[in-house]
Description:
Blueprint: E1 7-8, H1 18-27, E2 29-42, E3 48-57, E4 62-65, E5 69-80, E6 84-91, E7 95-103, E8 106-114, E9 120-121, E10 128-133, E11 136-140, E12 149-154, E13 162-165, H2 169-190, E14 193-194
Antiparallel strand pairs: 1-14, 2-3, 2-12, 2-13, 3-5, 4-7, 5-6, 6-9, 7-8, 8-10, 10-11
Amino acid sequence: MKAARPRVPTFNLSGLLLLPTLLVMYASVSSAQTINFTYNGLRAAGGADSGAGSITLNTYTGSVTLSNVTAFSFSDAVSIPSVGSGNYIYGLGDLTGFSATIVNGSVTSMTLTTGTVTPTGTLTQKLLFNVSSLSGAGLQLANSSSYTIGTVVPSGPGLPPTPVAEPSSLPMLMLCVLGLAGGFLFKARGSGQLLNT
Length: 197
């Protein structure tokens, strides 16, 4: 009577069918990048302001709009002689409009609009920030009359976009990995085949 040969774990090759799914998910990444910008403006009645901000986009090429913005911040310091000073801080929730054109990693045009915010400091006037073009920007009153007028200088990094996995693909990736691992463990523990002599 021949002795039984040890069982050799086998792997279900059908599990390999999940690999194309993984490759598709890795291919479906977005190009996330941040536009940094500075602003300098003057007030006709006297005074000046300057600020800096950033806009993070989930794609960084061609025409982008408000739906592509994932993060936004802008802080502008205003100083008016004999009146006072204030700091206007805008966040993503204040952004009401945005569009830009990006060519070879450079911002060639940009428009942006926020809602009004109340400043910190001695100034009390609520103001919004509006960019109608790179050379036409400024703080405005709620009725759209200009408070300060200046220019915006964007400084997109101009580097190759950073791949970022889309949030919806992450759960799918985890399920695929767990499925592959589970299938292998199940086969390794519960089944096998005899070696032929």
